[in-house]
Amino acid sequence: MSKTTAVRAAGETLTQRQIVTVMVGLMLGMFLASLDQTIVSTSIYTIANDLDGLSLQAWATTAYLITSTVSTPLYGKLSDIFGRRPLYLTAIAIFLAGSLYAGSVHSMTELAIARGVQGLGAGGLLALALTIIGDIASLKDRSKYQGYFMSVFGISSVLGPVVGGAFAGSANILGFDGWRWVFFINLPIGLAALAVVFMFLHLPAKHVKQKIDYFGAAAITLAIVPLLLVAEQGRSWGFASLNSFLCYGLGAVGIIWFLLAEKRAGDYALIPLRLFRNATFGLSSLLNFIIGIGMFGPSPCCPCTCSWSKGSRPPKPA
């Protein structure tokens, strides 16, 4: 295998060893973000019971999904303007701050806020890892490296519920409630990712003067947030309730507004619509959408439907 298989800038190359080192940091970041999408599912009842917030437990998941989903395209656009490295380091720092806060909360409201902060960081971890590989790896090697990332994503999605259940089932670990380690476990992994990326990822400085698609960002927020809300809250509201139909309507308005805003923005758009004219891009987007349904549609242990979440589990000891 060639020793210089990645291009960093004109006349500059990264060795295979440097690529692998950078990949370790990027994969750790993706592992954190994808793990936190599922790790809470099997521990949320214990957390809510301990924090006396059973009625608010769904918001711990909803807040994370909303902020991570909305921030993902924003990170991509901002990294085009300010560079990948500073945005990725910022994403890790935000995620670590949210994890530390989430492990230290004393109410479900605080936990929902902390999960929202985590999601703001996770959006960058998920979006920029593959983008950075595209910057540093040669075209013929990108699919191989992206396959490694997808395997990490799949493994973490399976491990999340197992690890979350194990921590939630422990009364005390190193002086802290067991469930708090659902969030504290992110700290050593995240610090390792931060150190590796800071020391070994060196991309050329990039300050491209571009317009920021504010209308597109507002439109995609309006489109995604109501649909995520009804997906999470529909069981309690009723999918045919007034609240649900209000979310459907707002989501539809947001989608239409987003399409119009992106068409008007052209190449400055958050997600340029011309990309979908490429058959490969369009098909891969559709396949990723279907994969997402398969991975996140059937919750491994939904606290809203499990019998023990409806009262069969013994109450928290005094």
Mean pLDDT: 81
CATH superfamily of the domain at 13-210: MFS general substrate transporter like domains
As for the CATH topology of the domain at 13-210, it is Growth Hormone, Chain: A
Please identify the structural class as seen in this structure.
Answer: mainly alpha
- Based on the coordinates given, report the CATH architecture of the domain at 13-210: Up-down Bundle
Q: How much beta, percentage-wise? A: under 5%
Distance between the termini: 62 Å
CATH classification class of the domain at 13-210: Mainly Alpha
What Rg do the Cα atoms give?
21 Å
Q: What is the count of β-strands?
A: 4
Low-pLDDT sequence parts: 1-12, 299-318
Run of helices and strands: EEHHHHHHEEHHHHH
The percentage helix is: 55-70%
Question: Helical region count?
Answer: 11
Shape: globular
Order of adjacent strands in the largest pleated sheet: 1-2
Major sheet description: 2 strands, antiparallel
What do you see in this structure?
- The protein is mainly alpha-helical and 318 residues long.
- The chain has a domain of 198 residues: MFS general substrate transporter like domains (Growth Hormone, Chain: A, Up-down Bundle), CATH 1.20.1250.
- 68% of the residues lie in helices and 3% in strands.
- The protein contains eleven helices and four strands, in the order ββααααααββααααα.
- The strands form two sheets. It has a two-stranded antiparallel sheet with strand order 1-2.
- Strand 1 and strand 2 form a beta hairpin.
- Helix 3 packs antiparallel against helix 4.
- The longest helix has 30 residues.
- The chain is globular, with a radius of gyration of 21 Å.
- It starts with 5 loop residues before the first strand and ends in a 22-residue tail after the last helix.
